[in-house]
Amino acid sequence: MPFNRPTLSELIERSRGDIETRLPGADSALRHSVLDVLARMHGGAMSGVYGYLDFLARQILPDTADGEFLARHASNWGIRRKAAVTATATATATGVNGTAIAAGTQALRVDGQAYRVTAPATIAAGTAALSIEAIEPGPDADLTVGTVLTLSSTIVGVNAAITVSAAGTAGALEEDDASLLARLLDRIRTPPRGGSSNDYRAWALAQPGVTRAWVYPGWMGIGTVGVAFVMDQREDIIPLEADIDAVQAALDILRPVTAEVVVFAPTPAPLDIVVRVVPNTPAVRAAISAELADFLAREAEPGGTIHLSRISEAISLAAGEFSHAIELPDTDFTPEPGHIASLGTVTFV
Predict the structure, then answer these.
(1) d(Cα 154, Cα 150) in Å, to the nearest integer?
(2) What is the DSSP-derived secondary structure letter of residue 267?
(3) Distance CA 180, CA 67 (A)
């Protein structure tokens, strides 16, 4: 039999009933009386107790738990929340030969993102290679070659501007509850089988920054397994070479000794869409573009078919859309193996 949590009003009425039962002739409903105040105070306190019990009840089972309780459930199954990753890079500083740059020296990007030097360096032949890392983890701190940073404090003999010469590790946020829960439920519902397709997928998803992964048995012949993945936290979800190397190294440790694992990044296959929409306003166009991007993020997979009816459904979900007709594509879209559908140009006519 389900338990229904009483409302605050019901608890106050119960308190009034208890008072009147134990104090014959008392009227606890008399507004602003001492008994009325006591009834309301007791009802409010009990409401808080019921609320806490309701919270604890949700934490008992993993599919309704959250925060540290969810992490505890996951740890019992050998699953750890993926930690945040700090972006790294190599930057070139210029200045007077022999000038030292200490570890911990900070530099700022034009948007205020802060970085620090991780190892001391000395100017030689006019330049010095600096190993730098972001102070705050996450993909927003990723650096690209050519980005100019400015030293936050003056160093005599060193020019204030330093330039990124090589990208390193990409940043990633700490895994959120939704992703952790999805991995936990997948582990509970699909136990390990010594190297099944789901095992490879779970191993890939356990790596920092990886949000979706696909497994292809016999990808390059008998005894090989192909693993493709994307990183949805970034603006460009396609993994970099360093990301591929990191996942490859992790899977090489976990894979069965008889399997050869090939980790690769899917190649984007732009899907151009031409649609006639009513009303054709900027707000509706923006809403349709957002729904299409979200649709592909949910359903696109390497070599997977994007059905025309599903594209139409995504457009219909856009706020303000009344009717539409898709002029392009005129049939289902299936990219080549290893290619993943991505949103190309959306044209409104």
Answers:
(1) 10
(2) E
(3) 10
- Paired residues of 112 in beta bridges: none
C-alpha span between 330 and 333 (Å, rounded): 9
Partnered with residue 289 across adjacent β-strands are none
pLDDT in tens, 21-44: 888 877 877 777 888 888 889 999
3-state SS track over 80-127: CCCCCECCEEEEEEEECCCCEECCCCEEECCCCCEEEECCCEECECCE
Report which residue type is found at 109.
R
Other C-beta atoms closer than 10 Å to the C-beta of 18 total 13
Q: Rounded to two decimals, what is the model's pTM?
A: 0.71
Copy the structure tokens of residue 278: 């009513």
- 283-300 pLDDT, tens digit per residue, is 999 999 999 999 998 889
325 three-state secondary structure: strand
Tokens of 297: 């993020």
With beta carbons less than 8 A apart as the criterion, state whether 345 and 334 touch.
Answer: no
> Three-class SS of residue 18?
helix
| Cα torsion through 332, 333, 337, 338, rounded to 10 | -140
CATH classification of 193-263, choosing from 1.10.490, 1.10.1450, 3.30.70, 3.30.300? 3.30.300
Angle of helix 197-205 relative to helix 177-189, nearest 10 degrees, comes to 160
Contacts of 306 (CB under 8 A, 6+ apart): 271, 296, 299, 300, 332, 333, 334, 341
Q: What is the DSSP string of 192-253?
A: --SS-HHHHHHHHHTSTT--EEEEEETBTBTTEEEEEEE-TTSSS-SPPHHHHHHHHHHHHH
User: CA dist 288 to 225, 233, 294, 329, 333, Å?
Assistant: 37, 21, 10, 16, 19
